[in-house]
Amino acid sequence: MKQLVLEIEAILDQVLPPAQTVPAVLHESMRYSTLGGGKRLRALLAMGACAAVGGDINNTSGLVAAIEMVQAYSLIHDDLPCMDDDDLRRGKPSNHVVYGEAVALLAGDALLTEAFAELASMPEKYGVAYETTVQVIGELARGAGSLGMVGGQVMDISSQDQELAEDTLRYIHEHKTGALFKAALRGGALLGGANPEELNQITRYAENFGLAFQITDDILDETGQTEQLGKAVKTDQLHGKQTYPRLYGLEKSGEMAERCVMECHDALNGFSQKAGLLRELASFIIQRDH
Hints:
- The protein has a single domain, classed as Farnesyl Diphosphate Synthase, CATH 1.10.600.10.
- 71% of the residues lie in helices and 1% in strands.
- The protein is built from 16 helices and two strands.
């Protein structure tokens, strides 16, 4: 995984416009929040899904770049004062602290737009079939849009200081966090040539992975340290957000995350050892400390 993360970093470095490109402050800001940090989980999942169905992970380069640019844009916007108002991200000052709110907002806009430009270039740049390219663009658009990540974020903001039922909390997590994981996994599987049954099982894996990730994130926000997480802790409580630990307690939340991971492994039962990366990531997700 460490080697793949280095490869992902190199892909992003090549795809993003150089820092000195006019307007320099915008491109510096884009690179500041995209490069040199993060677990690259979404990119790794895209690669892992492609490999699991027998594909060549080199075919995922366009999606890898796009999904990480979308993730970076979402974090820039999440940290803005009008959203979660966080001054620390990935162990360094948030984008708006360094570049100001206006540039941060526009850097996020630019990253989202450039992500789809990169996907659109996949046939010429990476040899991806046009039909597959359209399918992958659709997956990321749905995952990032109003019926995915953005919709989940709106529900999260509008539900602050409310006691939420489990189905509402699950909706928030499935959309705000899980939708982008699903887009990465399904997109990677499509690029690997997945058949319908393989795609169904990858989707099942994605849904459980996303929930396990978010429950663990909720737990870490309660129990983790700023130095390890690279961001402020106990912010969910500060913003009056409902979380799994607040709804069920830490112990039961941990058990729920473990059950999701078991479901991830079960979804991969029909896959060969080529699904090793996905298996490793599923186990890693609840063992992490950041």
